[in-house]
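Weekly modeling sync, notes
Attendees: AB, CL, MP (scribe)

Item 1: holo prediction request
CL wants a bound-state model with aspartic acid before deciding which constructs to order. AB pointed out that an apo prediction alone won't tell us much about the pocket. Agreed to run with the ligand included and paste results into these notes for async review.

Input as submitted:
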Amino acid sequence: MNNLITAKFGGTSLADASQIKKVAEIIKSNSARKFVVASAPGKRFSDDIKITDLLYKCHSQAKNGEDFSATLTKISERYSEIIKALNVDFDIDSEIAEIKTKLQSGTTPDYPASRGEYINSKIIAKFLGWPFVDAAEIIFFNEKGLLDENTTFKTAGEKLKSLEYAVIPGFYGAMPDGKIKTFSRGGSDVTGSIIARSVEADLYENWTDVSGMLSADPRIVQNPKVIDYITYTELRELSYMGASVLHEDAVFPVRKAGIPINIRNTNKPGDNGTLIAATLPKDIEKRAVTGIAGRKGFSSIRIEKSMMNGETGFGAKLLYIFARNGIPFEHCPTGIDTISVVVSSELFDQKREIVLREIKTELDPDFITIEKNLAVVAIVGEGMVSVKGMAAKVFDALAKAGINIRMIDQGSDELNIIVGIDEGEYNKAINALYDKMIA
Ligand code: ASP
């Protein structure tokens, strides 16, 4: 039983009055949904412009000494339409006038950008008949611009627990001097997580325009299955490899407190979505693979040196050369007398000459071979732990599709199997693996 839910609604869920009405129905259909975090109005159709983007545009126009009034009028008109259709009493003109004054006096981009969620949340609060709580009064950053967790959780918790219900704007908080600071783009997800943690919610619902996280990229696999349950760790692996459904930083506040996240679809509220939790439910049917994701654009730098095996510290010295040139390594498969470092081609190409020179002078290798155009694919699932034959299945799927594996990596936690293949075979590989391991 969830007694207390924090529900965050994204930009497409709040893009116009009809979407806001759907959201209000969702909120009212479960009395546990007491704290609502709202985004700014997003896109209503594919080439529409998000309010946040219009606000950033106003700021850059103002900064360049250009006339921003037409852009600000577009923003004002969108809100006016919403206000009229919802039939709420709201003075949009004075909000817009305030943004205009701040823009004219040379504000940072954060202030205007934050007004998208600020105004939207005030309108939604009026429509629901709920109190509005400004995020600048409960979410705090320190001097370095990092979230001040302790003060935030305490202040937000105390303030919100004194209210029965509240609407809180996403995406921003306040610096120690009171100035507005935003999170990075998509940051309302982070606000939702912070609020869920502060009020000690039983569940953090994240309402968006898809019915959950997909088990593979829908641009590559036709109609991939929605993931019903996923652990925080699996989510981290899949997100790192390119699958995205939440802002990267949104997991941390709730994860520490063991609050599950439920990704839900505002346009299909009957769908269960994806539940992200610390562990998979016990009664879940044994599922080996949760999802498949990958990335292109890697190079493998392979070093061969006879008797490398006996040279303690060789690997450390090699990795340090990459590190001091600002190139993080992604994988590092080794043989007896060989070691390969898999890195981003983009980063490597910028430092190629210097890295190769340093490897030659400091490590005196017999051969250096560079393989480019590598894609890395991760097959992720906590269900794979201790299950025999998983790697065999992966290799079989790729072999049957005629794909050569150029690198293999599996951590001892058996949470994922990672293979490196030719970039040109990326889509074919993802489909072959999906068909064999998930479909
Ligand atoms: N409105 C902000 C953005 O477009 C934040 C958010 O929606 O999460 O990035």
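Recorded for review: Residues 10-11, 39-40, 50, 52, 116, 170-171, 185-189 surround aspartic acid (CB under 6 Å).
Action items: CL to compare against the apo run; MP to circulate these notes.
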